[in-house]
Amino acid sequence: MSSAKTKKIIKKPFTVRTKDPIKRKRHIAKVKVKVVKAEKTKPDGLVDGLVLAEIGPEDPVRRLPLPLPRKAVSRKPEPPTKLHLGKMTYSFEEGGAEMRDLLGGKGAGLGEMTRIGLPVPPGFTITAEVCRRFFELGRQLPNGLEEEVHRRIVELERKTGKEFGGEVDPLLVSVRSGARVSMPGMMDTVLNLGLNNRTCNALVVLTKNDRFAWDAYRRFVQMFATVVLGMKKEPFEEVLKRYVAKARVASESDLTALAFRNMTSEYKALVRHYTKKDFPEDVFIQLRMAVEAVFNSWNSRRAIEYRKHAHYPDWWGTAVNVVTMVFGNMGPDSGTGVAFTRDPSTGQRKLYGEYLQNAQGEDVVSGARTPVKIAELEKQQPKIYKQLHELADKLEKHYHDMQDIEFTIERAKLYVLQCRSGKRSAAAAIQIAADMVKEKYITREEALMRIEPAAIGALLHAQIDEKHRGSVLVRGLNASPGAAAGIAVFDPDRAVDLKREDKKSILVRPMTTPDDVHGMIAAEGILTSQGGATSHAAVVARGMGKPAVVGAEAMLIDLRARQFSVKGETIKEGDPITIDGTTGTVYRGLLPMAAAKLTPQFEHILKWADEYRRLGVYANADTPEDAKKARDFGAEGIGLCRTEHMFMQQDRLPVVQEMILAETPDSRRKCLEQLLPMQREDFRGILRAMKGLPVTIRLLDPPLHEFLPNMYDLLVEVTELRLSKADSSELSGKERLLRRVRQLHEENPMLGLRVCRLGIVFPEIYQMQVRAIMEAATELKKERVDVKPLIMIPGVGTVTEMKALRDLVTAEAERIIKAAGTKVTYQIGTMIEMPRACMVAHRIAEYAEFFSYGTNDLTQLVFGYSRDDAEGSFIPVYLEKKILREDPFQVIDQDGVGEFMRMAMDRGRTTRPDIKIGICGEHGGDPTSVEFCHKLGLDYVSCSPFRVPVARLAAAQTVLNERAAESAGEKKVDQD
Ligand code: PEP
Ligand code: MG
How many angstroms separate the alpha carbon of residue 767 from the centre of ligand 2? Predict the structure, then answer.
């Protein structure tokens, strides 16, 4: 074997396998490498092992029993099926806010409003239990329901003085879905039900308005055909277009009664043609079919997608509300609208919403017609506006929350059709919660419970950097705050495909419908050319915490050509754009983003959260900048500093590569000496940024070949050089590099020479890192900076590894302290990320002052799923098929991984009762996992800086939930 040294200039950039700094997923990064100095010696000169014999194997006598699995937390089980349904319908007078699970949010709200005397049209609700039974029976209505519904209709007839199917004053109803939580637009609704040829004629006579009656009828036929009979809307739209063109009018609102009447006949002919059946004239059959359709819509693709995204269980089912129709399209003194009692984007206290004169509710919600601001109503019908204002105040006072009200004005009489707690942006949620505490509507505890931890993450995300506001393409409505950049896509499926390729997109549509939801989930942001602040796109985006700009009317979208044009510019699919949902502006290109800041209200809420939570919240940060950000967001320490990210920096990589390619410990040490001052500077920066707080620094973790060029790329290069018979020195350099890369190549690198095994095999690397940490700490100590370093050894699986590396760290740390003449206290601990470490945690704890769960690796190893591949491969299928309820790399698998964590904790604490235990895997910022960590009894969670506020809030909510459950339990005991 030659030991001659060779030096080589490599001009082309290397392709290096690196990892996503957050997920540690591997991706390919091009890194320019100028000089690689390689030394060659015997391959076995690589190993400079430690003597391990003096520590025996784990003592079998001390092996502890496996704790019994305990009940998982926060999993509400599916309730057992009731054999007897009991009461299946409730009139609005019988309902109320507390019956949301049974009557759905809408039904409970209508009941409550009726109870407090608001003008609600009479109606009744079929319970969500009936929906569950409907599916159990193979999509059949349970026995007795039709009779009960008949009785309710008779009641309605009595209350309204109208008759269902009657030929004098016919009762028309709407049939509306309503689950226990709002799922805007995800399920179906049928309006104007009860119309047939006879009742329509009656309506003509009664209202003396044939145009209104036939318009209502043709709308009903189309809605019934598309919602209940499953027909496509296009054939109906074709007919409508033809009538508009024939009449040479601008829109359908200018068509005559005769036109609507003829259209109705054509619509019915379409129904006959497509379904081979006549349109049902019997109003009770219409009602039964509509109820079935609404139940069925619970399991429509879009509803399932929405539930999956929102983590709502499938078993809930939807209630159905049958409500007396009131008409907003009976002339200029009629109309319909949606109003929020506060601004749902900012939280500002003012009536906010939109109104359409002479229109039905669906026109507003679907975004098909662009409504005017609610302030217009004040000009048009000041009395009604005042009444709406009073009603809004009454509702807020009653519910102690911001309300979203759907209203209709029928011939100058105001009706409320729905009220629910209004969806709001995360920014608005915070503002409203803080304001309502000030207004004494709610307590601090209630304020904390009002904010969805997962949603506030969006607030902490970047906004467009003020300095880089690019050229404005178009402006629309600022429907959902935050900024997003990505390539324009015009099709929701395309957004999903791009997401799979890890590419960011902005979904551009004229308007969105519930069928687009999967694309909205996949895209970074949403841009529409139509619709207002309460359109589907706006409401859904706000709920998802996604930036959205809607109603950018200057855009001309051509869905077929997959492009839009505006002011002579054309944006094609694949072109980069940036949207700012806070201002409603759309820019060309991908604009740089600036970090978000906490508002004073947000700070208040988080401070209140700190008063309740028990769990510490630390951050994962690798640079002084991240550490500072983490501290600003309230981190109480650094729970994980991944030192390999420092190795990846452009100026260091060549030295790191040289160090890896070195074939003797001496030559390796020389490279490490070059790295030492750089690492020391990093640690100084972080320790200084976190002064007074603990900083957990993990020694090198990833497989070394991740810092080297890709073996397959090198192979291609060498082959090409060989074929081209190029400069032989270049060839020999590449061949030598390839040989070394091959030596380091592993089939299963995540199970190979990585984590603490690196420290055992190359102790000089860990020695250098410990030296850098302790020199930084002692220097800062001399500058009177309070430093609290914790040195963390990754991936320990045996007590021998732990003991050997503890000895190494202690020896080096003490040497530095002695040389510096300054005392610095430090701790040595380990990550718990190997299943074996959990089993022998009681032995490992003899040498570890703290444990930190590396749940990324622990999940990988407990499940046997590759963390690099599983999420891009079978996990989506597993979720789809419900083999897994959640992605275990995002939410802790409480039954499996969680039990290993419990075992390690219990065993560790038997040896060292005060051992500090935390988590630093990505799960540390996931609200459900935070709750689990609290219940398990950990000391802290550590997550990315942006998720620190999320974790603070989630930890406080866990305590508040516990207290609520305790007091509910106490109440129950009292009653018993
Ligand atoms: C872990 O495994 O959970 C962890 C934090 O370490 P890494 O992701 O760097 O392997
Ligand atoms: Mg790990």
Answer: 20
Residue nearest to atom 10 of ligand 1 (CA): 857
Residue nearest to atom 4 of ligand 1 (CA): 854
Q: Is beta strand 89-91 parallel, antiparallel or unpaired with respect to 189-193?
A: unpaired
Q: Using a 6 Å cutoff on CB, does residue 903 contact ligand 1?
A: no
| C-alpha to C-alpha distance for 50 and 757, rounded to whole angstroms | 11
589 φ/ψ angles, rounded to the nearest 5 degrees: 85, 175
Question: Ligand 1: which residue has its CA nearest to atom 6?
Answer: 854
DSSP code per residue over 75-107: -PPPPPPPS-----EEEGGG--GGGHHHHHHHH
Nearest to 549 by CA among 522, 513, 515, 512: 512
Mean pLDDT of the chain: 86
Does the beta carbon of 240 lie inside 6 Å of ligand 1? Answer: no
**Separation of 857 CA from ligand 1 center, angstroms?**
6
Tokens standing for 866? 């590759």
What are the CB-based long-range contacts (under 8 Å, 24+) for 384-389?
Answer: 384/409, 384/412, 384/414, 387/414, 388/339, 388/351, 388/414, 389/351
Q: What backbone phi and psi angles, to 5 degrees, belong to 536? A: -55, -50
Q: Determine the pLDDT at residue 427.
A: 86
- Rounded to whole angstroms, the Cα distance separating 672 from 660 reads 10
Q: Which neighbouring-strand residues pair with 942?
A: 618
Report which secondary-structure segment, H or E, holds 193: strand 189-193
**Dihedral angle sign, alpha carbons of residues 436, 442, 447, 451:** negative
Average pLDDT of the residues in 336-350? 91
Q: What DSSP line would sit under 544-563, residue for residue?
A: HT--EEE--TT-EEETTTTE
**pLDDT score of 100:** 93
Q: How far apart are CA 945 and CA 21, in angstroms?
A: 13
Q: What is the residue type of 260?
A: F
Residue 155 pLDDT level (bands cut at 50, 70, 90) = very high
| Band of residue 898 on the pLDDT scale cut at 50, 70, 90 | very high
Chain Cα centroid distance, residue 339 = 27
- DSSP class of 224: I
Residues with Cβ within 8 Å of 695's Cβ and at least 6 positions away in sequence, in order, are: 627, 637, 638, 641, 686, 687, 787, 788, 789, 790
**Other CB atoms within 10 Å distance of the CB of residue 206:** 14
**CB-based contacts of 340: which residues, under 8 Å, 6+ apart?**
351, 352, 353, 402, 403, 404, 405, 422
Which pLDDT value is given to residue 49? 32
Percent helix, strand and coil across the chain, each rounded to 5?
45, 20, 35
Among all chains, which residue has been given the structure tokens 């600022």? 478
DSSP secondary-structure letter at 227?
Answer: I
User: DSSP letter at 589?
Assistant: S
Decide if 879 contacts 887 (C-beta within 8 A). yes
In whole angstroms, give the CA distance from residue 107 to residue 113: 10
CA distance 642 to 24: 11
- The residues carrying an active-site annotation are 536, 920
Sheet holding 413-421, edge to edge: 372-373, 352-357, 335-340, 403-410, 413-421
Highest mean pLDDT among 147-156, 310-319, 735-744: 147-156
Ligand 1 within 6 A of CB of 643 = no
Neighbours of 457 (CB within 10 A): 18
Closest CA to 948 of 640, 694, 636: 636
Which pLDDT score, from 0 to 100, does residue 478 have?
79
Torsion angle, alpha carbons of 817, 820, 825, 829, to 10: -40
The CA distance from 841 to 900, in Å, is 10
Cβ of 701 below 6 Å from ligand 1:
yes
Residues 6+ apart with CB under 8 A from 184: 365, 423, 536, 539, 540, 543
Q: How many whole angstroms separate alpha carbon 163 and alpha carbon 502? A: 58
